[in-house]
Amino acid sequence: MAQTPAPPCAANKPSATSCKDEPIDVDALLEENDRLRNLVVQLSALVMRDVARRR
To answer: Where in the chain are the domains?
Structure first.
């Protein structure tokens, strides 16, 4: 199977909005980070439970 070239990295693309357009709400970002971290922990627990059940 032929491989297609990888798309350019998102970090190389200019942002649709810059930091100058809107202030960054650090508290909201920290809250979202906490929620996402909790979801990762839950997902990890589900995966580990599923792997243990299959043994």
So the answer is: 24-55
Q: How far apart are CA 26 and CA 32, in angstroms?
A: 10
Half-sphere exposure of 43 (CA within 13 A, CB side): 6
Q: Is residue 15 classed as helix, strand or coil in its secondary structure?
A: coil
pLDDT of 3-53, one tens digit each? 666 655 555 555 555 556 789 999 999 999 999 999 999 999 999 999 999
Rounded to the nearest 10°, the torsion over CA 25, 32, 13, 20 is: 0
